[in-house]
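Give me the fold.
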Amino acid sequence: MSKLIIGLTGGIGSGKTTITNMFIEKHIDVIDADIIAREVVAPNSPALSAIKKKFGPAFIQPNGQLNRALLRTKIFSNAADKSWLNALLHPLIRAQTIAQTAAAESPYCLLVAPLLVENNLVSLVTRVLVVDVSEHTQLTRTLQRDKTSSEKEIKAIIASQTSRDNRLNAADDVINNDGSELSLIKERVTELHQQYLLLANDYQ
């Protein structure tokens, strides 16, 4: 069981997936909050039934999956609906996150959560690792990755997330991924990995 939990976070387009994969290569268990968020609204789940009852059958696709695009549009323009959805899903996501981190078997584990700070998940982790980039880098990378998204849409997502300063204020450790060479990022991950292995001994 991993008693040392590292919360990895960063804004959209910061390179969280690339860095997470580097930790996976070192055989570190990863708990992904985005995957948990999808699991709690799986077809036939109580949460999905509640969403259907609240917003209507149009929010469920023919295959039984949640219509995420429609829901995103709905809550983006309605604060009350967003609050209702958060009140429904956040406790479920939190409970699953606690269960999965408790089941991790590597010396320490990584909780990857883009909204770690925004969703008050910081209390679930021992240390916060922030992948830090400038807003310009976020915009450029996300436009390259998501060909269907417009600059306006990406800027709106960046604006909806916590500020870069807030994220850095919550950080115990930082990886600057703003144009750094991949080899330098790998060195930084290895350095943090060794640091976390030493720290993990104190949490046995």
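The two ends are 9 Å apart (CA to CA).
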